[in-house]
Give the backbone structure.
Amino acid sequence: MTQKSWMYSVLEAVQWEMQNDPKMIWIFELTPPVASTPGRPVINLETEFGRKRVVNTGIDENWMASCCLGASLAGSPSATYIPYQGALMPFQVIQNVAGKLRHMTGGRASMPVTWIIEMTGQTPGFAGQHSCYEEDSYYAHIPGVRTVVPSTPFDAKGMMHASLRSPDPVVFLYPAGLRTLVEDVPDEPYEVSLEKAAVRMEGSDLTIVSSGAGMPEVVKAAETLRDEGMGVEVVDLRVLKEMDTDTLVNSVAKTKRLLTVDQSYFTLCPGAEVIARVATNVDGAKYKRVAFPDAPPPASPEMFLWMRPDADKIAGAARGLV
Amino acid sequence: MDNTTGFSVEPPEAADAPSSESRRGFLKFAALTGAVVSMTANRALADGDIAFHAQDLSDEQLVDLFRTILKIRWHERTQADEMLSNPDYRGYNHFYAGQEAVASGVCATLRNSGPFDQIDVVYSSHRPSGHAIAKGVDIPRMCAENDFRATGLNGGYAAEMHLSDPDVGFIGADGMIGPSMPIATGSAFAFRARGSDQVSVVFGGDGTYATPHFHSALNNAKILDLPFIYVLENNLYHQYAHYTYSSPHKDIASAAAAYGIPSRVVDGQDVIQVYNAAKEAVDRARSGGGPSFIEAKTYRYYNHWGAPGAKAGELGAFGYDPLAITSFRPDREVRAWMQRDPVDIARRTLIEWGALDAAGAEAVEADVKAEIAAAFAWAAEQPLCTPEDGLEHVFTQGTVPARQFG
């Protein structure tokens, strides 16, 4: 057990899978598959596995995503890291090919492919095109592709092992805002389910549901509310597709109040789906939805920080609900 | 891009960096060109294929070329100094220093003022501050924008990577790699469709070669004979990777030639040579001759993003860039290219041609430094943005609702 970051944990899982399956490949552009953490060896997939299996390509995310899909169709588990500049460039191949292929072939296609897709936009000063926290909504909409967004280093490692071993294609969202998060993560391989949400805090007055980059501020708000005497239950979705309806319904059946929190744009954000699923299964509950407004994030820190959901705004919304 | 690049909690050992034969080859190339230029003042003269259009420029126009180069240079240096020494300064940049002759030489051949339906348009991708200045963007307002001020060029919404000023034909910086190229061909398509002699120019780096957009833009520009000029600034690195990771061509221009497009490789450090090639391309586009491609061999003096490795008051960035992780530029390569400085080459050429003397060149530089210092001083006085304004400008009119409070 060592303190590890989100990305160190992910690359540790990838490294183990590559060591144990010589067929597996990794494609990257710009961002080398290198991670280090105090007390553990530096991971460098490129030098460890060589440029036949690990390739630094030009800026062509469509090719990166397609190459990995093709490798998986030929029986090589594959993974790629799409940095945020190109987060939606691979959309077509994921949406119109990978998402439909298993169904379209009557179940014959097998696709052990994982696209790690970065989300950024939590840093004041980086405007418009350099923000893409809304991509969770786009990818979660696609049938046939598992879309996950681990919010802790522990989950990231376990879900990466599960993704690489899954014959289903997986969009593995990486909220870059979590890059400084560090926690104890086992050195040996383990799996975390690609189908289950996690209850991070238990309570009976209010359920707060969030995911990915929303989680640190939600946990902060929940701790404040708990200190004020509110019984807050916090659910981390972890999986956007297929969404774990049971955990959501069970929680709100108890609390009768649901607050969803997303860094994604308001319209069709994951919270909208959460509320719809709960509302059709729980009678007499109250709802609120916190999200980024339907506007591109501006560069100015004054504008951006006011628009971004944070612990104070989340706590304020919660107080209005209870 | 932003400071999220890379995964490391601590920088790995430099020994992890892959060494590349081709990069060593390039060092030799850089050293060789440096030697050639130290013997002959004007490499442009060596390229007999391109008409020597710059000869036709008046002394005043030549001095303007030099002044534009200096404006860019001192903007970059002043901003780097602000970033390094002023803790209250919040702006950042993908610095263009080292590449000034490219934007200056190209934009000097374009129509940069007048009615919007007559001026030429420029699209930029990365390192837009140089392209913006060369196209004639108001420098104080650009400085204010880069520091997120309400009275900035784009009201504090854009910042450096998304600068835009349609009034001077600077349609803007696209912070992504690729999309601006096909979009620029769209402007060229409109010019042809409405019978205008306007020209559409896109600046892109060596990193654009690998994108599907590069090939789509060139193919369609050729098929449709569009008044489109692709200026590829090959500064050897896309972010932190040498361009040989993404292109099999030593000269990317040879890929453009395969699309049937007239293509030139020019010394991007020599504004005269850039001007000559750009003038040829603009004349071709205006007269209905279709697209052109110019590959300018150039180099950036700073690292990909921000000012790591730079010192206040000194030009350039050296040493290990912690953002680069496995791929970084050898100091020797940076210093070899700095021997062929676009400011020095332009100054020497103008003095040799008698357009101005050494004292005159010094006076121009002093003027420019004062102008840039005043621009930064003005920008620092400008008001910060109003938070609620973030809900404006989503559509032409009105605001979108706040959603962050539930």
Summary: The two ends of chain B are 32 Å apart (CA to CA). Residues 273 and 321 of chain B are 32 Å apart (CA to CA).
